[in-house]
């Protein structure tokens, strides 16, 4: 999928949201390593990254060519400061209506509207791809993220009290959240 949009941030700067491509492999790798070290609310730690910069480049190229998956990067002054994406849950008929959403933003850029813009961009892309439901998992203690998702229409449909096992805090409850994209309330 392809995406490209310029947005104005709360501090007046311009941010470009666009699908990543092969040339962004190193920048996405660096951003992943940074953001996953900054917070304990993401799925993995930097030392668990299974991709190097070249593999990130191949991943981005694949997503750019996909009709129904995408990885969007947020770029300010040529620097990747965040990313978000949608990925299908599966190819089988019973689950092909569902996509998963993931996001990370450099902590130095929190509070500027980048997370909301990336979330909305992924919702837009998920609708364009024909998904009926977008899903995510959020650490319950990450109140800012949970509030953002709720404000964009996501609803919690479950809670796993032992969803993540943090190296720092032990068990972290996670909320399972979903957004109906097809206009249904169910």
Secondary-structure blueprint of this entry?
Blueprint: E1 4-8, E2 14-19, H1 25-38, H2 53-65, E3 70-76, E4 79-88, E5 98-105, H3 114-128, E6 133-139, H4 143-151, E7 155-166, E8 170-180
Parallel strand pairs: 5-6
Antiparallel strand pairs: 1-2, 2-3, 3-4, 4-5, 6-8, 7-8
Helix pairs in contact: 1-2
Structure description:
The mean pLDDT is 96. The protein has a single domain, classed as Aminopeptidase, CATH 3.40.630.30. α3 (114-128) links the parallel β5 and β6. It contains 4 helices and 8 strands, in the order ββααβββαβαββ. By secondary structure, the protein is an alpha+beta fold. It has an 8-stranded mixed β-sheet with strand order 1-2-3-4-5-6-8-7, sandwiched between helices. It has helices at 25-38, 53-65, 114-128, 143-151, and strands spanning 4-8, 14-19, 70-76, 79-88, 98-105, 133-139, 155-166, 170-180.
Describe the structure concisely.
This protein is α+β, with helices and mostly antiparallel strands. The protein has helices at residues 25-38, 53-65, 114-128, 143-151; strands at residues 4-8, 14-19, 70-76, 79-88, 98-105, 133-139, 155-166, 170-180. Helix content is 27%, strand content 35%.
Main attributes?
single chain; 186 residues; alpha+beta; Aminopeptidase; eight-stranded mixed β-sheet
């Amino acid at each position: 999928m392809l995406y490209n949009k310029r947005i104005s941030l709360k501090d007046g700067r311009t941010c470009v949201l666009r699908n990543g491509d092969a040339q962004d492999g190193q920048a996405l790798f660096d951003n992943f390593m940074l953001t996953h070290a900054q917070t304990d609310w993401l799925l993995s730690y930097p030392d668990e990254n299974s991709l190097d910069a070249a593999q990130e480049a191949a991943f981005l190229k694949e997503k750019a060519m996909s009709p129904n998956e995408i990885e969007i990067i947020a770029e300010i002054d040529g620097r990747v400061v965040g990313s978000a994406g949608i990925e299908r849950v599966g190819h089988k008929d019973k689950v092909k209506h569902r996509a998963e959403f993931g996001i990370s933003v450099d902590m130095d850029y929190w509070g500027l509207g980048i997370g909301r813009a990336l979330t909305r961009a992924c919702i837009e892309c998920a609708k364009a791809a024909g998904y009926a439901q977008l899903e995510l998992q959020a650490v319950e203690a990450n109140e800012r993220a949970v509030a953002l998702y709720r404000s964009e229409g996501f609803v919690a449909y479950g809670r796993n009290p032992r969803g993540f096992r943090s190296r720092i805090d032990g068990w972290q409850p996670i909320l399972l959240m979903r957004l109906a994209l097809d206009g249904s309330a169910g």
